[in-house]
Amino acid sequence: MSAVLNTNTASLWAAKNLLGAQNRLAASVERLSSGLRINRARDDAAGLGVANSLTAQINGANQGMRNLNDAISMVQTAEGAIAAASEMGQRILMLATQGANGTLGQSERTAIQDEMKQLLVSINSISGRTKFSGNALLDEDFDAATGATKYSMQISNTASDKIDLKQQAFFNIGGTAEGDDAATFDNEETGTGLADSVLGDTDGEGGVTEDDVSLFDAVEADALNGASASAATSAFQVVQRAANLYVVELGKQRSLLGAYQNQMEYTLANITELSSNLSSARSRVIDTDYASETAALTRGQILQQAATAMLAQANQMPNVILTLLK
What we know:
The protein is mainly alpha-helical. It has eight helices and six strands. It has two domains: 56 residues; 192 residues, CATH 1.20.1330.10.
């Protein structure tokens, strides 16, 4: 190397190496202090893209888990209401069976009919009060409802990834009150619920005929407490058939809600596992490996000290020119 004064090449190289050592040391300090290997795009542009994609999936899965938990609570609310109505339907069936016994008198049959009416009023109240987040859960028309989706549960950040809850699971289990009298129901004009739809039959053969009556109509029949024991027995048998079919329909609806709940619980377990695995994958991309980064920090500190010492030595090297000038 030539002995020159204007350009200290050794000093320039030492300064360059010192700057590089300081930059690497600063990067190590940043990674160790933040816990992230990628703090800005220049740290790892490709890795940042992968991490952002994984983050979107993780956030979608985590929100999907909360959505599913809310949906399970909603289904449990509806199923609990139907379970209560089913118990009252069973009670009506038992009372109808008791009333069909010809040994009862008119006063006893009247008492039975009064209790059945009040049970139907309670069923109708259950249907009206069962709500979740302000949404009526049991308000679908039993006669006209189709297989259309009533609620759609979003599971992830993919629009097509969802669970659809059909209208059949949310039938109106009660009826529509006529006028201001909550104990009177008119099936022909306002009937939309399960209990005031066509359920029973009067032909004694279990077939659907033009003589079919609803559970409300059957319970409202005047013949239930009439003077004729034989007519009352026949009327109570109509209630029996209607109540039995009502309980069966409630069972179908409750089973569908149970199937939805099982589906969502299994899906929730899968989404939870997915979120955990995706989080682990993102961690391997974006998080700081403290064992490796601590070693890099130590190396950077040593290189910084060495580069500083060498820069000081390089700055003294032009002094040799003075000896040539003596």
